[in-house]
């Protein structure tokens, strides 16, 4: 709770400042000298420099849209450009488009350039501005939202006109909603603040798009639609566009040059619909410069066309940081929807909200990875928990979507049971998710997944801050080749791994040793697990990398990362890893038992797969049965849930009682119950059992891992035997911050740099603007 918005500002400002400093230092430490440059002219007549960077530090991974400064070694010439394309392979060229109007380009020089990363303070500036607006401008949002954000949720007063909704809630060209989606839409339309939570593939984005459609139709308000990353915004933009609404997608200037699927909806391209502006812009591009008169006309016309387009739009889509763009600064947005809001830090979410918000919808899933915070101290101070999570802790209800449409039911079972209390139902049947025409040596064609046990060892990757595993890379290449030969197209395959070192090694290895044409391997996406959040592919291969006797499994032990990794595939999933080593970690042990019991824990070779004989440690229950706290916590939560949710009762015993948690559950059932979090009910249940309950225990997502699932975070499960109380009290003192969950958690017993650094590998300002 905060006394007022000044207090809120005083808490958050130093945090984002420190975070910005960490980020800036990292970026500015990236300097490359003696770089060879190849010059070329792009389609738009702009100069493009192509060059190869010797090594790229995973911490400051360069992203499309980022700015780099190119200079001659003697610094007599320098210029800034935007990255157009980042190579996948070390040794491939990066392309940098110089800014318009760059003078004296040394086109006949190719040697001896210096390349530096330019840190942009835009994100930080906009978050700071939002905090200031929040503090000083009482009209920047409704009083209701203002006091809720400060921690004083008010009784909902019905100031809104009652909205009459059609009986069937669907939007043109989008799937017909299921009942939990429909009720999410109904609740959100009638509420001033609503939270929509959903496991992967449950239609959060479809529901958001449908909701936006009805909000526009019902209220005629202009809706501001945001998400933390550009990719997420693009996906939602595409769906909203399908409904027939007038959508404008605002990209940051530096991002305009980067390709995307919804480019035709971008503000900068829509503006060229104006013939005069188009002509002037072409002229400017060709000659580099306009006459003073033309330049003046060009500028005023730009502003005019820009404002016309924006004010006639039904929906404006941009990233959270993009909402602070001066081009949309003059507009007021009464209705704001933020998709994937659990991946944004709180001040980031505030940017779109301080533009006059009276109705707010936050969409997300706290069981997947949260926002990336670079500075460990800042993460520990609470910046790594999102606004969504904090509002739940304050007692707001999240409406949960429960039917997933992505995965073959066999693929969703583990995630549902372990991460969503068994509540995740399947909207697709096995028949929908079998590719009968493909040829592949699945151990069981009915269950298109397996764990491929390999015993290769991990090694430090070239940069010294990440890991790779050659044996796993070889296996992944063989599986990939087999999939391609079996009739799967490269675009259908995704390869994921938690480590940047392995990611780049895999790309190189496949292309150099794969027996099929190199083009096929190049067309396959290879990404870090974190970067793949929010994405899906028909077939996913995961390389676990970690394989050592004593050092632990690093990143892999974050349950949220495992959840993300397991839920990307639609038709088939293959995990490549060292079963014996991974099984030392209790959560992975459960996963491996799950595979083993289904006859899907395999030893190779690929052409003659056979059930593995590896000895897995005995399963530890997925909760700590000894101290009261642990049992109390789990059962109270579940009791409260089951009181409200038909169908959970039976599952509950699978979770809390004996036996394997996956026993008895039929993953093939199709259900569609409506489900919401009811903190009040949990509170009542706590009261009924007459035990004190700290606020942070009211809702599972507010707990640190130790608090809620102590078995998950301890190396080899050993600490779990020492009792729960220690972990509990420590966790409680961390209270609501959820800090230990993010970066700090990872630094744990591995105690080396690589973890922290790889964790942040996918973070780059570039993608957030
Ligand atoms: N009610 C529905 N009926 C049929 N398919 C649906 C429905 N809701 C979502 N889907 C499909 O499920 C997939 C995942 O939806 P998406 O909105 O991207 O989920 P999320 O944002 O929760 O990951 C998409 O292919 C989408 O078309
Ligand atoms: Mg989505």
Automatic annotation (TrEMBL):
Its EC number is 3.6.4.12. InterPro entries: AAA+_ATPase, DNA2/NAM7-like, DNA2/NAM7-like_C, DNA2/NAM7_AAA_11, FPG_cat, Helicase/UvrB_N, Helicase_ATP-bd, P-loop_NTPase. Residues 172-299 form the Formamidopyrimidine-DNA glycosylase catalytic domain. The gene is RvY_15988. This is DNA helicase. The keyword Nucleotide-binding applies. It comes from Ramazzottius varieornatus (Water bear). One of its GO terms (cellular component) is cytoplasm. Gene3D superfamilies: 2.40.30.230, 6.10.140.1240, P-loop containing nucleotide triphosphate hydrolases. It holds the Pfam family AAA_12. It is found in: Cytoplasm. It catalyses: ATP + H2O = ADP + phosphate + H(+). GO terms for biological process: base-excision repair; nuclear-transcribed mRNA catabolic process, nonsense-mediated decay. Belongs to the DNA2/NAM7 helicase family. CDD domains: 1B_UPF1-like, DEXXQc_UPF1, SF1_C_Upf1. Keywords: ATP-binding, Cytoplasm, Helicase, Hydrolase, Metal-binding, Nucleotide-binding, Zinc, Zinc-finger. GO terms for molecular function: ATP binding; DNA binding; DNA helicase activity; DNA N-glycosylase activity; DNA-(apurinic or apyrimidinic site) endonuclease activity; RNA helicase activity; zinc ion binding.
């Amino acid at each position: 709770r905060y006394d007022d918005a000044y207090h809120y500002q005083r808490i958050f400002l130093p945090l984002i400042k420190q975070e910005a400093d960490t980020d800036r230092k990292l970026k500015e430490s990236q300097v490359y000298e003696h770089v060879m440059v190849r010059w070329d002219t792009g389609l738009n007549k702009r100069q493009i420099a192509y060059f190869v960077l010797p090594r790229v530090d995973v911490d400051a991974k360069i992203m499309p849209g980022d700015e780099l400064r190119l200079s001659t070694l003697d610094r007599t010439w320098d210029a800034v450009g935007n990255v157009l394309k980042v190579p996948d392979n070390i040794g491939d060229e990066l392309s940098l488009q110089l800014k318009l109007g760059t003078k004296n380009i040394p086109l006949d020089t190719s040697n001896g350039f210096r390349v530096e990363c330019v840190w942009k303070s835009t994100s930080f500036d906009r978050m700071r501005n939002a905090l200031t607006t929040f503090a000083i401008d009482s009209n920047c949002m409704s009083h209701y939202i203002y006091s809720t954000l400060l921690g004083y949720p008010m009784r909902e007063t019905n100031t809104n006109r009652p909205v009459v909704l059609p009986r069937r809630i669907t939007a043109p060209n989008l799937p017909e909603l299921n009942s939990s989606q429909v009720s999410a839409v109904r609740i959100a339309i009638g509420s001033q603040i609503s939270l929509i939570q959903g496991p992967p593939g449950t239609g959060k984005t479809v529901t958001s798009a449908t909701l936006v459609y009805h909000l526009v139709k019902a209220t005629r308000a202009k809706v501001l639609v945001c998400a933390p990353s550009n990719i997420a915004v693009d996906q939602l933009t595409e769906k909203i566009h399908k409904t027939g609404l007038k959508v404008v997608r605002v990209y940051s200037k530096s991002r305009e040059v980067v390709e995307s699927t919804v480019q035709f909806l971008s503000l900068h391209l829509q503006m060229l619909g104006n013939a005069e502006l188009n002509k002037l812009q072409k002229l400017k591009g060709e000659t580099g410069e306009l006459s003073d008169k033309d330049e003046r006309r060009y500028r005023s016309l730009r502003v005019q066309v820009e404002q016309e387009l924006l004010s006639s739009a039904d929906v404006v889509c941009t990233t959270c940081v993009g909402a602070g763009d001066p081009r949309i600064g003059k507009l007021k947005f009464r209705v704001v929807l933020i998709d994937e809001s659990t991946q944004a830090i709180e001040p980031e979410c505030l940017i779109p909200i301080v533009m006059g918000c009276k109705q707010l919808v936050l969409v997300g899933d706290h069981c997947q990875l949260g926002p990336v915070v670079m500075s460990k101290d800042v993460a520990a101070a609470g910046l790594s928990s999102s606004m969504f999570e904090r509002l739940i802790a304050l007692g707001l209800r999240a409406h949960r979507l429960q039917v997933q449409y992505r995965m073959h039911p066999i693929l969703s079972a583990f995630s549902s049971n372990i991460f969503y209390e068994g509540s995740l139902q399947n909207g697709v049947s096995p028949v929908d998710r079998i590719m009968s025409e493909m040829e592949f040596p699945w151990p069981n064609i009915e269950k298109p997944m397996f764990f491929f046990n390999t015993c290769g060892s991990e090694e430090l990757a070239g940069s010294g801050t990440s890991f790779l595993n050659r044996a796993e890379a070889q296996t992944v290449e063989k599986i990939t080749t087999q999939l391609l030969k079996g009739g799967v197209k490269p675009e259908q395959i995704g390869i994921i791994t938690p480590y940047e070192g392995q990611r780049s090694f895999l790309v190189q290895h496949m292309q150099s040793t794969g027996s099929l044409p190199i083009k096929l391997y190049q067309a396959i996406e290879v990404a870090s697990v974190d970067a793949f959040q929010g994405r899906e592919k028909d077939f996913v291969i995961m390389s676990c990398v970690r394989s050592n006797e004593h050092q632990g499994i690093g990143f892999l032990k974050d349950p949220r990362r495992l959840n993300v990794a397991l839920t990307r595939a639609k038709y088939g999933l293959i995990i490549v890893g060292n079963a014996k080593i991974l099984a030392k970690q209790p959560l992975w042990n459960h996963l491996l038992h799950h595979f083993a019991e289904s006859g899907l824990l395999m030893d190779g070779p690929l052409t003659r797969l056979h059930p593995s004989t590896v000895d897995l440690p005995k399963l530890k229950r997925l909760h700590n049965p000894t101290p009261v706290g642990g049992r109390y916590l789990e059962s109270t939560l579940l009791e409260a849930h089951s009181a409200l949710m038909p169908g959970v009762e039976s599952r509950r015993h699978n979770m809390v009682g004996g036996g394997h948690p996956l026993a008895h559950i039929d993953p093939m059932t199709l259900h569609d119950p409506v489900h919401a979090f009811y903190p009040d009910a949990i509170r009542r249940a706590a009261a009924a059992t007459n035990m004190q309950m700290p606020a942070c225990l009211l809702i599972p997502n507010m707990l640190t891992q130790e608090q809620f699932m102590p078995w998950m975070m301890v190396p080899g499960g050993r600490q779990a035997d020492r009792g729960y109380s220690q972990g509990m009290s420590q966790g409680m003192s961390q209270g609501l911050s959820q800090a230990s969950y993010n970066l700090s958690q990872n630094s744990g017993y591995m105690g080396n740099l690589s973890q922290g650094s790889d964790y942040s590998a996918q973070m780059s300002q570039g993608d957030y603007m």
